[in-house]
Amino acid sequence: MIYATSRHAVIIGAGIAGLTVAMFLRKAGFTPEIYECHEDMHDTGEPLIIAPNGMYVLNELGLSARVFEMGSVIEKNTFRNSRGKVLASYVNAHPNGMPSVSIARSSLISILTDSALNNGIAIHYGKRLKNISGSYGHRGVCALFEDGTIVKSDILVGAGGINSATRRIAFPESPMPAYTGLVNIGGFTDASLIKRLEDHKTSVVSMGSEGYFGYSMAGISNSRKIGWWVNLPIQEEIPASELSEASKIKAHLLDIYKGWHEPVESIISNAEVIVKHNIFDLMDMPRWYGGRVVLIGDAAHAMIPHAGQGASTAMEDGMYLAKLLRYNATSSLVQIFEEYQHHRKSRVGKIVGLARRYGKPGRTTSGIRLAIRDFLMPSFMNLFGNHINGWMYAYKIDWNSSR
Length: 403
Description:
Layout: E1 8-12, H1 16-27, E2 31-35, E3 47-50, H2 52-60, H3 64-70, E4 72-74, E5 76-81, E6 86-91, E7 100-104, H4 105-118, E8 122-124, E9 129-133, E10 141-145, E11 150-153, E12 155-158, H5 165-170, E13 178-190, E14 202-208, E15 211-220, E16 223-233, H6 246-256, H7 264-269, E17 271-281, E18 289-290, E19 293-295, H8 298-301, H9 310-327, H10 333-358, H11 367-388, H12 390-393
Parallel strand pairs: 1-2, 1-12, 2-8, 5-14, 12-19
Antiparallel strand pairs: 3-7, 4-7, 5-6, 9-10, 10-11, 13-16, 13-17, 14-15, 15-16, 18-19
Helix pairs in contact: 1-4, 1-9, 2-9, 9-10
């Protein structure tokens, strides 16, 4: 059997998952080090809503107050049709005592990075993983980087996202990420330029024949911005060269959402930041661990964004893995990693399935179906809105319990 003896951990990836697991491993008595292939992680600008279960994890790290300060609490969800008619609106429950928060991904990463550094966690940028050796050995696992750096540790945590180098190297038999037929477009607009806005604590989703348009206030660099997002069904994966053409993207969106209620067109017209990318997900991974290597977050279970749980489940992974390592110091890593995979795969599998159902690309909805939706949705959402996803949001990991 193999054990963690020196309590040293190498984490590959300085995104949300990697930073979170590093801080919980620190709390569990490990010495974590993070290695990131990019030169920095502060340019990933797109809106993000952290669900209550994700906020619970951040609260356990003592970071919820900072997230509230940098972001915008979402107290109400409102659904409209493309003409602006309110179909449903309900106040969010706080099933675990925490609200949802809208924030820029870059702001969240900045908060996590500052906290990690303040806790003495080393972050090494510009380190691209080349190979892993000794992952099944009793003497540790070695990470070899393209610049020649070699680092030995007790465990190696792959937190590099959907294109994880750790997964590719350590689990070559694993499935490849698959294009889902959806393209995500999102960005930020200066709120002062928009005349008609909902209450700043409201998240709005407007739905029409071609899809939806979502927006809410979103903290970014302590300024008042609107974060907005759409997911468009596009059969063929878009070439990388076309993903950064902001003016063409804006023109395309204005064509799709022409005639929609205000402030949809105004938000698009005045957008300062636009991010566009193909949406991939990862079909069921048979194994999340092997020897001294373990995967978390999108590296293990990348999902489409329709359940709003990608970041939150990644943070849960990090907290739960660190808790098992904290309370099972005398157990073998195989036992710990197996328990981690069993528990997390059971929960995340349900969420991945839900996201796929919500996000299944569809055709233009007929006028009759739209009318039926507009008629039935108010009763359904007003009765069940807070209960549909309550099981996801109420989830808690008790850090101070060994069970």
